[in-house]
């Protein structure tokens, strides 16, 4: 336990000497002016996801909510932290874009596919109900194909959570005013790739390096 704390403290020292010192003005500005992030990103609590690094964003640019499986409960069903983040980000902070960011090798999606693995985790089981429709759709799409359902359920979950996000009054109103757009992402941890859902093509399209 103490070794972990010491590692964290060393990380803080490294941040101070290697990161902060070269960007002092940026951090001081961030600390003394109201935040104005341009994007709300709802992603998984998985420790392998580093949103700021993936998007090359710095302090004050992203408003981030993390939870198991990058879930967004439909408005009114589980009012809590996620709902509060969405409402605050849209109505107070005035983000211009909201993204649901799923990822490869997601433990929550594995839990949906194998309910037995979460039977001793009642809170997780309850939370994963927000993704059961994605599981049903994935099973229908891949019915009798005998392939790994994990990639499909991961994609369908992102699309489902986008639908849930749009049930939130703050989001629906901002979209109606033309002040907010919404997207769905899949982050491939092992390859460093991001795919974003394209409505016209009805598929997740890679963000290609230029």
Strand order within the widest beta sheet: 2-1-3-4-5-6
Q: Quickly give the CATH architecture of the largest domain.
A: 3-Layer(aba) Sandwich
Tell me the β content. Answer: 15-25%
Helix content: 40-55%
Summed up, the domain count is: 2
> How many strands, which pairing sense, and closed or not: the largest β-sheet?
6 strands, mixed
Number of strands: 6
Number of distinct helices = 9
Shape: globular
> Unreliable stretches, pLDDT < 50, 5 or more residues?
none
Kindly identify the CATH topology of the largest domain.
Beta-carbonic Anhydrase, Chain A
CATH level 1 name of the largest domain: Alpha Beta
Mean pLDDT over all positions:
94
Order of helices and strands: HHEHEHEHHHHHEEE
CATH superfamily of the largest domain: Carbonic anhydrase
């Amino acid at each position: 336990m103490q070794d972990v704390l010491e590692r964290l403290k060393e990380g803080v020292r490294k941040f101070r000497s290697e990161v902060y010192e070269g960007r002092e003005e940026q951090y001081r500005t961030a600390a003394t002016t109201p935040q104005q992030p341009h994007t709300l990103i709802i992603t998984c609590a998985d420790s392998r996801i580093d949103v700021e690094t993936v998007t090359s964003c710095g302090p004050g640019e992203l408003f981030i909510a993390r939870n198991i499986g990058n879930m967004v409960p439909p408005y009114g069903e589980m009012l809590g932290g996620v709902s509060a983040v969405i409402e605050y980000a849209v109505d107070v902070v005035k983000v211009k874009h909201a993204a649901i960011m799923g990822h490869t090798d997601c433990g929550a999606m594995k839990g949906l596919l194998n309910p037995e693995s979460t039977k001793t985790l009642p809170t997780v089981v309850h939370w994963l109900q927000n993704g059961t429709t994605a599981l049903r759709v994935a099973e229908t799409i891949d019915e009798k194909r005998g392939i790994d359902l994990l990639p499909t359920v991961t994609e369908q979950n992102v699309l489902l959570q986008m639908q849930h996000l749009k049930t939130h009054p703050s989001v629906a109103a901002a979209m109606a005013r033309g002040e907010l757009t919404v997207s769905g992402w899949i982050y491939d941890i092992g390859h460093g790739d991001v795919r974003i859902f394209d409505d016209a093509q009805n598929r997740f399209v890679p963000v290609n390096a230029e």
